[in-house]
Amino acid sequence: MLTLRHGVRVLGAADLPAFLELTAQDPVANVFAEYRARTTNLEPRWLGGEVWGRFDGGDLVAAAHVGANLVPVQAGPGDVEAFADRALGRSRSVSTIVGPHTAVEPLWELLRERWAPPREIRWHQPHLVLTGDVQVEPDPLVRRTTRADLDLLYPACVAMYTEEVGVSPEAGGGGALYRARVMQLVSRGWSFARFDSGRLVFKAEVACTSPHAAQIQGVWVPPDLRGRGLATAGMAAVAAAVRADIAPAVSLYVNDWNTAARRSYERVGFEQTCLFSTVMF
């Protein structure tokens, strides 16, 4: 076992039960961390990084997923300070810090002087959850995608990512990896879309799941078709399918300035539970 500093050490497979008890304190907000833990057994070679745990009297009280994303889990002020101290002892490897605003903002304040300036900070991202029936009629033409849809689906995924993140997922030779990720979602039945006359007009994906929740990502309608209700009816179809087949709660987080998307999700029946933040490098 690694020596603890400020009660923090790297978690491993033996810590999985305790980690799942921790994520269960807020299973919807923590769905990403729980998904990563369940699919990797907290083994660093499968994580592509580490999960740090902070202990108090032998009990796991907070954690941080540290891979491509740095994601705090149930982290209060003292936990944030301990994780920041550990992070400052190594070079930055993460591309984003993302999670509840109450943890991300103080964590970044402790890291900002020594980590490179971020490309963008999105402080106010309402975290939304749907746990009941959808409140509008689902679009009957939205369906799970198949490999046969890839020629239409993949360009839409690239366009969505570029618009949302500000850089193309194909930049720096990342196209093959991103295409593999799109295909992975298709093969799992986590990719949904509507096609009209040989054109994709709506899409969304499930990013991660647990027995408690599923998180939606990549909601997109071509710019020239926006304002016609495609996203509202499409999201109703996706949310209904996810609750029927994948998880009882459906979550997502959205930029506060995206008023059209927020209105659409509200019509479907999503309700805000907390505020997320993202620091992007």
UniProtKB/TrEMBL annotation:
It holds the Pfam family Acetyltransf_1. Residues 140-281 form the N-acetyltransferase domain. GO terms for molecular function: acyltransferase activity, transferring groups other than amino-acyl groups. InterPro entries: Acyl_CoA_acyltransferase (IPR016181), DUF4081 (IPR025289), GNAT_dom (IPR000182), UCP21603_acetyltransf (IPR016794). This is GNAT family N-acetyltransferase. The lineage of its organism: Bacteria, Bacillati, Actinomycetota, Actinomycetes, Propionibacteriales.
